[in-house]
């Protein structure tokens, strides 16, 4: 392992030069196998690696994350895909390993946001996962190891410039972390929290049953928001995040954003969406953009004219009623919030996107009103007592 990495510049070209090193002078817990990672690549790599490592620790399943700008666009564990999701993710005939499945779920949460992502994988990268990565628009990947065939596939991506990092799975950071802002040093203990059974101990609603699938999804959502810029809320289902609301100043806007993304995730699986016939030569990213525009209520005539050029046969758009009927089939969704809900409006919006299981910090002066709302909607809610702000 090297003792430092030198980069051309930091967050922006005028912040040059830049480097990555340990203050104690020790070797870095990562090695560059291909390409030249940037400052932002390393921020995404180090945060996403922690996320997948802790998902693996908590759930004993292969885990993946798709990061953009120091927050996850998606995160997931390797729960098998059904035929509907295989079609929505364009992998009907693919031979998928559990690790490849985890990445497809992470990437599939919000494919628009994942365009040009940084990928983190909890396990040694195999050839099926490398094949999936090769076709996606992505900046780089971090993992504890790579099968020889997988590494060769990845080295050929982006004209040989795809960034491939190998993380030391045995490395543990010191108990304190330090950052500098405006020439001042800020120090705090590392956030080593990982959800366990005690995390679910305080169920505050009349409905109390938390099946294992809901616990799994709440863990996925909770660890995702641990590494999401606050305020943040995540919705999860079937082992994957399906919507994240990141960096909002109000809690309800976090919920609205996360729920709106979850709705789009669900709508992309509508039978009419799976039957869309694209014009020959349309790339995957263009298909994803066309599907997103197809689902927007406020598309302009100019946007729609450009949109129509993607299809061999222009499809009729879903009506508002058709969308609502399909969204009403979204059930069993888990929601995690990085702090308490101050008002019931958060749950009023969440229930429209199928949320049935909630974990939040609790401790608001309005806890009774929030709990009453959860009871009204038949939700199971846990007040964890754990806040997970990330700044």
List the helices and strands and how they pair.
Elements: E1 4-7, E2 18-21, E3 30-34, H1 39-59, E4 63-68, E5 71-77, H2 83-88, H3 98-108, E6 117-121, H4 127-135, E7 138-143, H5 148-155, E8 163-167, E9 176-181, E10 184-189, H6 212-226, E11 232-237, E12 240-246, H7 251-267, H8 271-274, H9 284-295, H10 301-308, H11 320-327, E13 333-337, H12 345-350, E14 355-360, H13 367-376, E15 380-383
Parallel strand pairs: 6-7, 7-8, 13-14, 14-15
Antiparallel strand pairs: 1-2, 3-8, 4-5, 4-6, 9-10, 11-12, 11-13
Describe the structure.
This protein has 391 residues and is α/β, with parallel strands linked by helices. 35% of the residues lie in helices and 21% in strands. It has three domains: 4-167, AICAR transformylase, duplication domain (Cytidine Deaminase, domain 2); 193-267 and 327-383, AICAR transformylase, duplication domain (Cytidine Deaminase, domain 2, 3-Layer(aba) Sandwich); 271-317, Helix Hairpins (Orthogonal Bundle), CATH 1.10.287.440. The chain is built from 13 helices and 15 strands. It is globular. The two termini are 29 Å apart. The mean pLDDT is 94.
> How many DSSP helices?
13
Order of helices and strands: EEEHEEHHEHEHEEEHEEHHHHHEHEHE
Q: Got a strand count?
A: 15
Low-confidence parts: none
What's the CATH C level of the largest domain? Alpha Beta
Shape: globular
CATH superfamily of the largest domain: AICAR transformylase, duplication domain
Strand order of the largest sheet: 3-8-7-6-4-5
User: Would you tell me the structural class of the helices and strands?
Assistant: alpha/beta
Major β-sheet profile: 6 strands, mixed
Write down the oligomeric state.
Answer: single chain
- Helical proportion, percent range: 25-40%
Which CATH architecture of the largest domain is right? 3-Layer(aba) Sandwich
Number of separate structural domains = 3
Ends: how far apart?
Answer: 29 Å
Provide the residue-averaged pLDDT. 94
**Rg value:** 21 Å
CATH topology of the largest domain: Cytidine Deaminase, domain 2
Which range does the strand content fall in?
15-25%
